[in-house]
Structures are given as C-alpha cells and as structure tokens.
Amino acid sequence: MSIGIISAMKEEIQALHHQLELRSTIEKGQRTYYHGKLFNQEVVLVFSRWGKVASATTATQLINDFEIDEIIFTGVAGGINNKVKIGDIVIGKELYQHDMDASPLIPKYEIPLLGKRAFQTDMIRTKNLQLAAKNFITQIDLYLTKEVLNEFQIDQPQIHLGEIASGDQFISDKVDREQIKKGLPEVLCVEMEGAAVAQVCFEYKVPFTIIRTISDNSNDNSHLDFPKFAKEIASEYALGILKNYFEK
C-alpha cells in the first residue's frame, strides 16, 4: 500500500522528489506519477496542476490506478485570517468550496446530492501531521537558512489547525477576500485544490489530509515571488514535515 502525495505545482514537491528512491514512473492524462520510497514509506508523487478539476482528476487517477490508502495534499495558500502570517503552516481540519453556490435550490456551499458543506480530514492522521509540523519547526534550521527565511520575512512560524476554503480563483483582491470571510468567517486560508481532492477522497472512502504553507495574505501583493516561495520555502516545509510524519 502507498501514500499518494499531490501538489498543484512542481516547485511545491521538488525537495520531496529529490529525496525519492524512484522505482517507476507512469504517464497518464498528461501527468507523471512517480512511484518509490520516501523515508522508508511507499509513495506516489504527482503534481496535479492548478484548480479543482485538475486536482480532482489527479486524485481519482491515483485512487483507481495505485494501491493508495491515504492522500496528502501539500502546497501554498493565501491567508485570510488575521491569525496567520507568511511562513505559517495550516493543517486542514475542514475544507469548503467557497465558489459552490447552487442557491436557491440548495444552501450556499453545500455540495449537490452529498448534503455536505464541508469535508473533514482524517482526524488521527491530521493530529499526527500537526505533531510532525511542530517537530519540523524545532528543526527548521536543518532545512532553511536564516538568510532565506529573512528574505521572505519569516520569523517564528506558527502551526494552525482549522478550516481551508478552495475555489477556482486566485484571491488577490481585498473585495474577494472579504466576501469569502463574510460567508466563511472561520476559514484560515484559501487555495484552489484542497476541497476538490477532499470530496473525491470522501466519495472513494480514502483518508485525506492537507498541509498548506502561507505564502501571502491574499492581497494585491499575492503574486510577488510566488514561484520562488513555493520552490524555496513550501517545498522544504513539505520535506521536513513529511520526514517527521513518516518516521514517527
């Protein structure tokens, strides 16, 4: 049995890929699935591309074509809660699709036919990920230099367990940010894939967890150095957290 690890961008799992003891690659649906061992754990690594459709397609392929008993999504997100800052880690507890609105037929955010507004992550695995993230923070200097952390103004990063919202929209406008906060006031960050993968995992009964590194505050500066942050910060965060997670 293997653990599937998905990210939306190559840069977000680059460090994991470098550590992977590669056994095989499979090309399907314009995606490459890398099968091998990572810290003595059988894994399949894949980057899904951006958005809910791309990530849901990738998750479905993973589940149907590999013996996957868990899926982990990792990558960056934009903070929309004042509690989170750049460099913080959000471990998802519940995931919403902030752009799902079939009202007045059914309530806003509710997924048609499923009767669910949010998808919960696996509780035990999420708690273990939270512990792994805490251990990573105590060892962060093994993965990132002070110069790199200072470049992105990261100081004493915190770990948060809470709600994440997904939608097919890169949030970089204050109006959009406040609209999401109005409807989903407890959400900590926004991204474009997590809730779609969570829905697929719910329907296939596959445990799901998610790690998001806060790269911006979903404002007018959200695009600045975004790929560089994903490569130099989020990728190393994923490496450190999952090393602790697999070696627990």
Structure description:
It is built from seven helices and ten strands. The chain is α/β, with parallel strands linked by helices. It has one domain: Rossmann fold (3-Layer(aba) Sandwich). The chain has a five-stranded mixed beta barrel with strand order 5-9-8-6-10, surrounded by four helices. Strand 8, helix 5 and strand 9 (about 185-190) form a beta-alpha-beta unit.
State the secondary-structure class.
Answer: alpha/beta
**Poorly predicted segments:** none
Beta-strand level of the residues, as a percent range?
25-35%
Instruction: List the total number of helices.
Output: 7
| Net shape | globular
Ends distance: 18 Å
How much helix is in the residues?
25-40%
Q: What's the number of domains?
A: 1
Name of the top-level CATH class: Alpha Beta
The assigned CATH architecture is: 3-Layer(aba) Sandwich
Largest sheet, spatial ordering of strands = 5-9-8-6-10
Short description:
By secondary structure, the chain is α/β, with parallel strands linked by helices. It is 34% helix and 30% strand. Helix 2 (52-65) runs parallel beside helix 6 (194-204) and helix 3 crosses helix 7.
